[in-house]
Amino acid sequence: MRFGIKTLDDASVQGKTVLCRVDINQPVDRQTGTLKSINRIAACVPTIRELSDKGAKVVLLAHQGSDIEYKNFYTTKPHAAVLERLLERQVQWIDDVCGPAAREKIKALKDGEILLLDNVRFVSEEQTLFEKKLRLTHEQQAKTLLVEKLAPLADLYVCDAFAAAHRDQPSLCGFEQVLPSFMGRLFEKEYCTVSQVMEAPERPCVFVLGGAKIADAFEMMNTVLERGVADRVLTGGLVANIFLASQGKPVGQGSLDFIARSNYSEYIEKAAALYARFGEKIQLPTDLAWVEEHRQEAALGELPGDITALDIGSATAESYAGVIRSAKTVFVNGPMGVFEKEETEKGTKTVWQALADTPGFTVLGGGDSITATEKYDLTEKMGYICTGGGALIRFLSGEELPVVKALRHGASIPESKVR
Ligand code: ADP
Ligand code: MG
């Protein structure tokens, strides 16, 4: 039991049918039907292997989005092949989610065998539009088709999908109402790591917030400063430009136009309010970089009036690197600039190298932040890379994650004997 949720150490799974929800949602190349990445699939292998080794009949539930938002119709068939390769054991698959064919297949499983069902979002009640529109309670989710059809066949529910922990859907929050429930090893690692950062970080604790998802960055910043989690916040990317603008610093007309075009003008006032309260903890760039034929940099007071700032400057990057190297805990979300382009990657590259070098514990999340880490070949040097961007951000914004709430509930349902 950790943070009110049972772990696999608390479960006896031998001979039992275990419904295990994983998040193996990966970018798909729809032309060829192949997966562009397999890192989420690899991340849940330890849980699946452990369940199978311990003699459970493992039934995997998963979703796979398509490249078109809210049309979640891509099959999980390629994932079964990848899992089979990574696990080095057979992974059965069926093109059904909870119909008679899937149920027969589940009933026929032998101890240790693994079955991956097709995309749970083929069931309408699992779709994001349905979730947002109807907002079913967890009790109501337990009465949906998926849960009513599958729960009677199972003894236990395991959730290993921390990356989807901010979702409020039957496959994630419904089974915990009727089955004894546990978190898988990946969920345990990710949830406990971020809970540790929130509740008792080793200090100094530094948050590095950059990138372009402004609403998220502001919410996180507000929460971690208000709760006293962050001793210092280093700002980069668009976040920094907005803060600088809020302090009346010249950031270039191009930068201001970009903020307005992105509908972020209201955040200039929000930044001013945050800075008024927590200014001594929020560090802003002292120089910025832009591109005019090639990379150019200048200290804040000396910037040309018309530029668009696309990176923090070298002096700022070095100063941030120093703070990071002497921190005990560093949380990072969002790059320092447009790191995809060579002229504007220096700030991100310097800061990321410091993240790799610091003896402190680093937690990094966010799709582009992870891409940058891979680009600079630093994956092995980070303390923890979180697979769940959305869930991580919601958690650090102080929200209770629906799946965490459901798992706490499911921890109180007693295990029964093997049927
Ligand atoms: P993550 O995916 O790590 O959560 P975000 O999605 O919030 O990060 O931000 C990443 C994007 O922000 C990148 O595509 C990057 O090019 C862009 N970006 C970074 N700095 C700036 C800037 N100063 N102006 C505009 N875009 C920026
Ligand atoms: Mg992103």
Q: Can you give keywords for this protein?
A:
binds adenosine-5'-diphosphate; 17 strands; 419 residues; 39% helix; 18 helices; single chain; six-stranded parallel beta sheet; binds magnesium ion
Task: Write a structural description.
The structure is a single chain. This protein is 39% helix and 16% strand. Strands 5-6-4-1-7-8 form a six-stranded parallel β-sheet, sandwiched between helices. A six-stranded parallel β-sheet has the order 11-10-9-15-16-17, with helices on both faces. A three-stranded antiparallel β-sheet has the order 13-12-14. The two termini are 25 Å apart. It has helices at residues 39-43, 45-53, 77-87, 100-107, 128-134, 138-141, 145-150, 170-174, 185-199, 214-226, 237-246, 253-261, 266-278, 314-325, 346-357, 367-375, 389-396, 402-410, and strands at residues 17-21, 28-29, 34-35, 57-61, 92-94, 114-117, 156-159, 181-183, 205-209, 232-235, 282-283, 287-292, 294-299, 311-312, 329-333, 361-365, 384-385. With 419 residues, the protein is α/β, with parallel strands linked by helices. 50% of the residues are buried. Adenosine-5'-diphosphate (ADP) binds next to helix 11 and helix 16.
